[in-house]
Specification:
The chain contains two helices and 18 strands. It holds the Pfam family PapD_N.
Length: 251
């Protein structure tokens, strides 16, 4: 399979993974979020890939650094050689699992957290009968973050306003700020949303738990010393008035 066709297949697989349930003909990858340290035993973690296909599964793990902006997480496409993975490739037999160890090997002194994607990619396999290679290839991205020292995140909501979602409905739009050098996740806490009318009457109140945040927003990564704009998927009863949002981290 040439480079163009392989890229197309990977793109189709990425879209399929967003809309289709995991079936017997798939591979599973866990965990999908990893937190590492710059020293000690927490420098490394294991990614487990299970082959639930009915044929051998060839996979390859690649790394790229991430850039965190106010609007989210963006892949740079560059491997900065700060993560090492062993083995980088493997062929997994049907029903079997393979452990891949990911370790941070970069600078032990960090000014703030660093972030990476480890992509687990299915490779094309030639059939025994000499037929065509598999055309639909799956890939999974594992978020790997490395925090400096023993720092802990300190996330607060620095602003909240009423905006619009893609359907034109009024929704809360927040700016989540992290004053620590260590990254954190909105899904490891609770969000309380309160809307009031111009006269001060309460119109709406709801608390989102960590699992609810993760289901609707994902993990909600907030980098070290970063502010991130987040549109909360909670339609409000009115576009008028004010909205306040409070974040409480898990104990």
């Amino acid at each position: 399979m040439n480079r163009k066709m392989r890229s197309l297949a990977l793109g189709l697989a990425a879209m399929a993974s967003l809309v289709a349930p995991i079936t017997a003909e798939a591979m599973t990858v866990q965990p999908v979020v990893i937190d590492l340290a710059t020293a000690g035993r927490a420098m490394s973690e294991v990614i487990i890939v299970e082959n639930t296909f009915d044929r051998p599964l060839a996979v390859e793990l690649t790394m790229q650094s991430l850039e965190l902006t106010e609007d989210g997480v963006h892949a740079t496409g560059q491997d900065t050689q700060e993560l090492a993975v062993f083995p980088p490739q493997a062929v997994i037999q049907p029903g079997e699992r393979q452990n891949f160890r990911v370790q941070y090997v970069g600078d032990p002194v960090l000014a703030k957290s660093k972030h990476f994607y480890v992509t687990v990619s299915q490779l094309p396999v030639q059939t025994d009968e000499g037929g065509a290679n598999i055309q639909l290839l799956y890939n999974f991205q594992v978020l790997v973050s490395v925090a400096p020292g023993d720092a802990q995140p300190s996330i607060t909501i620095s602003s909240a306003e009423i905006g619009r979602n893609a359907e034109g409905q009024p929704v809360p739009v927040i700016v989540a700020s992290n004053s620590s050098v260590a990254h954190g996740y909105l899904s490891r806490g609770r969000l309380e949303i309160v809307q009031r009318s111009a006269a001060g009457q309460e119109l709406f109140r709801k608390e989102l738990t960590g699992p609810q945040i993760q289901q609707s927003l994902g993990y909600g990564l907030i980098g070290g010393m970063q502010s991130r704009r987040v549109v909360l998927p909670e339609p409000l009863p009115s576009a008028d008035g004010t909205v306040t949002v409070r974040y409480t981290p898990d104990a």
